[in-house]
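Thread: Newbie trying to understand structure tokens

Hi all, I'm a second-year student working on a class project, and my supervisor (Dr. K.) asked me to get a predicted structure for one chain before our next meeting. I've only ever worked with sequences, so writing a 3D structure as a token string is new to me. If someone could post the tokens and maybe explain what I'm looking at, I'd be very grateful. Here's the chain:
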Amino acid sequence: MKTVNDKLEQAYREERVAVYHTALTYLKDSAAAEDVMQDVFLAYHTALSGGEPVRHRRAWLLTVTRHRCLNKLRDGGRVEPMEEIPAVVEEDPAAAVEERHTVETILACLTREERLAFTLHHLDGYTYWAIARGLDCPVGTVQTRCRAARRKVRNLLQAMHREEVL
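---
Reply by user tm_fold:
Sure, no problem. This is what the structure looks like when written as tokens:
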């Protein structure tokens, strides 16, 4: 039988990226997103230690993340514009800077809801159903947001490609 610490460690390993991306999408600040992520996993530990039943771990974590972010935004914790996106380590620093700029430009063209659905589904690999359960919204809404985000990303990439060709 797993202990509370074992469950917490497994949850952190499997869900930290989704929790962080969700917080980053709302707060647009990596330090604030990390703080919220720590708070969420501390709350999860407290819930497990107190014997609270958590049936759908991912849904529970993403719901708590969303609520913590909304509270932080309400209390004035928002930082605009997005300060940084975690960089992918690359051999060529110039290529990394260019790639980072491209990713920032693309994500900036999406609404907060579209960015959240898009990153959770396409970058983190969560299913529409898991995202809908975690965000407490209909699966059709998640699919619509992803479709709108893909359309915007495709159009922006095509426009960027046309500029490079000219």
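A couple of things are worth pointing out once you decode it. Confidence is low (pLDDT under 50) at residues 77-90. The longest helix spans residues 139-165. Feel free to ask follow-ups in this thread.
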